[in-house]
Write a structure and sequence with these properties.
The complex is a heterodimer of chains A (about 70) and B (about 500). Helix content of chain A is about 55%, strand content about 0%. Chain A is mostly helical and about 70 residues long. Chain B has a single domain (about 5-30, about 35-400), classed as Sodium/glucose cotransporter (Up-down Bundle). Chain B has 23 helices and no strands. In chain B, helix 11 packs across helix 18 and helix 16 (about 325-365) packs across helix 17. The radius of gyration of chain B is 22 Å and the shape is globular.
Chain lengths: ~70, ~500
């Protein structure tokens, strides 16, 4: 129960990327692959979210989180 | 006659899936027939694959396919909400869902209202939460009925009036529910996902040619050249108030509300272990990349000049396929959309009815016999479907707008769940006060205009949720300051 869980704050990274930075990237006019930049940004955010959750899960496992623990 | 081919294909898809689901459910449930736990939480034995499919079935609904394509067609960039909200819900779910699962396993919970009455030692709160959850579920059923109504009018012809189509849609959904429980919904969700993927691939690889573009990405290029500003906020209709602030607040509200829907909450209980849940959270966001194709179809329809009946954005995808594709493709789309609406819709009605029987009727009249309880749950389901029909007929909002109303409604229960896990001093009376305050902001004209004046383009659900949470904290802090610590403070620590 006293296991370190500080790495779980990484789960806020997707919020910073997809919500926090959304107003800023709205002003970018570049069109990567012809896509509107804000859309490409959100799609990149989805991939980033999967990576972040995967990393958090890997750290959780290394720290010995059991299958029946919340 | 060409008009009957889509109908035949649509019927074949729906009936074939129902028959196969029933066979599957019978085989799986043979050892554990008819226990309440089997029927509503799948016996708490859902492994990674089946859990993933049921989850996907909950996220990729008519809201996604018809709603988001219609939003892309009507507004442009605001359709990105689909990209933003799913992955944020998953990041949050990684933390939240194992906690819900753990509480469910530890205390043998079946419904969300069970969680509230157990966590707050207050069966009366369970009754209120049960009713609040049912209200949000009924709004969610409205989305599915709106979609089914559109499909029936496309396949059966305009001779079918909107009212008849909506009643027929509700009848089909009830029939689907009565035929089986959650296990068969899981199978049907799998069929629906496979069909959905096949259909999206088919439409996406042909859409460029249909609208005179050279590739999928060229569709995106052309739509931006034709409609400058479509790809950035506030989109095609700046007066609609769908700006950056709207995106951020609506996405947060959807993310916070996703797991609070009673059927999602209950689904958390159905997982075999927390590992299943966490691994699912890793892969689930990637599924939402497929919205690329849904937006593509909406933009394709815009370039093609698709004009649905009455300018209804919900009907854009159907109209586009009717205009541009052969009848069999219309039938395939119609059948798939029927499953997209029926699978989650049946689960929603089932959940609403079980909450009503277990958390509303039983506490109010504890001497109910088992058969009376089942009878009440079934009658309640018909009543909820009738309310959803009424909502469907009185609203002409877009599916996305109806969806956001459903999230606003369920968001009223979010502070009670999150604070319940985060802050052990949260009290039942605080949760009740928060609910009342939140509903005032959401539903009273004075509350609505105050919120709209203070935070104009904010998602109204998030504003109401914020007020709700502040009141929960204030009243709980006050109440625990004047009361001596109770047993429940220690008993529920860590659940």
């Amino acid at each position: 129960m006293n296991r370190q869980t500080g790495h779980r704050w990484l789960l806020l990274v997707p919020f910073a990327w997809q919500a926090g930075l959304a107003p800023l990237v709205n002003e970018v006019a570049t069109r990567p692959f012809g896509l509107p930049f804000p859309m490409a940004w959100q799609m990149a955010g989805i991939v980033l979210t999967s990576v972040v959750i995967g990393v958090v899960y890997a750290i959780d496992r290394r720290r010995g989180l059991r299958d029946d623990e919340p | 006659m060409s008009a009957s081919l889509p109908l035949l294909i649509c019927l074949a898809i729906v009936l074939g899936t129902v028959a196969a689901s029933l066979g599957y459910a019978r085989r799986r449930a043979a050892l554990n027939a008819h226990s309440m736990e089997e029927w509503s939480v799948g016996g708490r034995r859902f492994g990674a694959w089946i859990f993933w499919f049921v989850n996907a079935g909950e996220i990729y609904t008519t809201f996604a396919v018809l709603g988001i394509s219609g939003y892309a067609w009507a507004y442009g960039a605001p359709a990105y909400l689909a990209f933003t909200s799913v992955s944020l819900a998953c990041a949050l779910g990684y933390w939240l869902v194992p906690r819900i699962w753990h509480a469910g396993k530890r205390h043998g919970l079946v419904t969300q209202a069970d969680y509230f009455s157990r966590r707050y030692d207050a069966p009366w709160l369970g009754v209120i939460v049960g009713l609040a959850g049912i209200a949000a579920l009924v709004v969610y059923v409205q989305i599915q009925l709106t979609a089914l109504t559109l499909v029936f009018r496309v396949t059966l012809g305009a001779a079918l009036g909107p009212a008849q189509a909506a009643v027929l849609a509700a009848a089909v959904m009830l029939a689907f529910v009565y035929l089986a429980g959650l296990r068969s919904a899981a199978f049907a969700a799998g069929v629906k996902d496979v069909l959905m993927i096949a259909l999206v691939v088919l439409l996406s690889i042909t859409v460029a040619e249909k609208v005179g573009a050279s590739s999928m990405l060229d569709v995106y290029r052309r739509v931006q050249d034709l409609h400058p500003g479509i790809g950035r906020f506030p989109g095609l209709q700046p007066d609609a108030g769908l700006d950056n602030t709207w995106l951020v607040t609506a996405a947060l509200n959807v993310a916070l509300g996703t797991w609070i829907f009673p059927h999602m909450f209950q689904l958390c209980f159905a997982a075999r272990d927390a590992r299943t849940i966490r691994r699912n959270a890793i892969w689930q966001p990637l599924y939402s990349l497929s919205y690329f194709f849904i937006l593509l179809l909406g933009f394709g329809a815009l370039i093609a000049g698709t004009q649905p009946e009455g300018g209804n954005p919900n009907a854009v995808l159907l109209q586009f396929v009717v205009d541009q594709y052969p009848p069999w493709a219309v039938g395939l789309l119609a059948g798939t959309v029927c499953l997209l609406a029926l699978v989650p819709g049946s689960l929603l009605l089932l959940t609403a009815a079980s909450i009503f029987g277990r958390n509303v009727a039983l506490p109010l009249k504890p001497d109910l016999s088992d058969s009376a309880q089942v009878w009440i749950a079934r009658a309640a389901m018909v009543a909820f479907a009738a309310v959803a029909v009424w909502l469907t007929l009185t609203s002409n909002a877009s599916l996305v707008a109806i969806g956001l109303s459903a999230y606003a409604a369920i968001g009223m229960l979010a502070p009670g769940v999150f604070l319940g896990f985060l802050w052990r001093r949260t009290r039942a009376v605080g949760v009740l006060a928060g609910l009342v305050a939140g509903y005032c902001v959401l539903l009273l004209p004075a509350g609505q205009s105050l919120a709209a004046a203070a935070l104009p383009t904010w998602d109204k659900g998030l504003v109401a949720m914020g007020v709700n949470a502040l009141v929960v904290v204030a009243v709980s802090a006050f109440s625990s300051a004047i009361q001596r610590p109770t047993v429940s403070d220690t008993a529920h620590n860590g659940t």
